[in-house]
């Protein structure tokens, strides 16, 4: 049964919504899932997120929280008694985790968008830059099963979309991004991440993800959409 007054407005094909699902399931928090159609956005979504008008939106007792990383912080603060914790208790370690979550979001995710939205020499350059960023991120995995240690935390959840989307993007754009020989720790981390029950339970329909990304890439290359 969903916790009273807790709703997640989302879309199964969104990696940002998945972050919130993983966090809620990881902590054992029940919620109501409200599926949104972004081509025909509901009045509730527009009311709850009037600035960006997008998912995810978590509504707790009628109060909306927007943007996936902000929602993750809210979940950690609102349900501190629920384990595992998404962030370390030590202030310095919390700051370090936030740093790497931000790096993953701004450098690795952005880098993947650059690969996805380019071709030719520009794409080759984007792939090399992304690989270097992933090697930098991999340093934070040294000696650990997950970025969070023995259990997943904020950095794992923010970075988790890699485990599902990268392989599909590699297939669509025709380049290899994650080579196990070049990125052995991230490759092993990805396998461990995919074995987690919250991840298995929330797995999106991969054929739909692939079809969506193919369509999106065509729009991007035609200049009709900005990745």
UniProtKB/TrEMBL annotation:
Protein family per UniProt: Belongs to the GST superfamily.
GO MF, one example: glutathione transferase activity
Keywords, alphabetical: Transferase
Cellular component annotations (GO), alphabetically ordered: cytoplasm
Keyword Transferase among UniProt keywords: yes
EC number: 2.5.1.18
InterPro entries: Glutathione-S-Trfase_C-like, Glutathione-S-Trfase_C_sf, Glutathione_S-Trfase, Glutathione_S-Trfase_N, GST_C, GST_C_Tau, Omega/Tau-like, Thioredoxin-like_sf
Keyword Cell division: no
Pfam families per UniProt: GST_C, GST_N
Stretches of the chain forming a coiled coil according to its record: none
Limits of the GST C-terminal domain: 90-213
Domain GST N-terminal, chain residue ranges per copy: 4-83
Top EC category: transferase
Signal peptide: none
Catalytic activity: RX + glutathione = an S-substituted glutathione + a halide anion + H(+)
The protein's name in its UniProt record: glutathione transferase
Source organism phylogeny: Eukaryota, Viridiplantae, Streptophyta, Embryophyta, Tracheophyta
Biological process (GO), any one: glutathione metabolic process
